[in-house]
Amino acid sequence: MANLFPETEDMVWTDVTEPGLLEQTEAVFGRSWRFDFDAGEFIMSPTRQMTVADDKEAWVIWCEKAIRTPRYRYVIYSRDYGSELEDLIGRGSRSLQESEIQRMVTETLLADARTQSVDQFAFDWKGEACRFSCRITNIHDEMETIESVVI
Hints:
The structure is a single chain. This protein has helices at about 55-70, 95-110, and strands at about 30-35, 35, 40, 50-55, 115-125, 130-140, 145-150. It is α+β, with helices and mostly antiparallel strands. The protein has one domain: Nuclear Transport Factor 2, Chain: A (Roll), CATH 3.10.450. The protein has a 3-stranded antiparallel sheet with strand order 5-6-7, with helices on one face. A two-stranded antiparallel sheet has the order 1-4. The chain is extended, with a radius of gyration of 22 Å.
């Protein structure tokens, strides 16, 4: 009976892959749909088509959504996605909460390979609510400032 898996000199069967063959050298910046976080809906064109975000804008939208999505609440997201900011409500002093916001936001955003750094945090307290902003930098050294609130 003929061999179902013939081997010739030009075919080499190995289980070992070359180092770096499966590794991706650069994070992938993809496209996304533009989203209005204040209105809670996708941004539509005048013809009622969803508008497309370019590479940088898609990354910024990902960052804002990751901060605003509670971690572990939705089964569709991995355990690495989202933040635990809502756990801070009414816990400790303002300086402790600011430190925790900075740590949690930084951990959340650095989970994405496109994010290089998170810094320059600024906090504004109104009663028990804390509005904060920070500067994010991607691996292409493009910077953006994002804002969010912890109530």
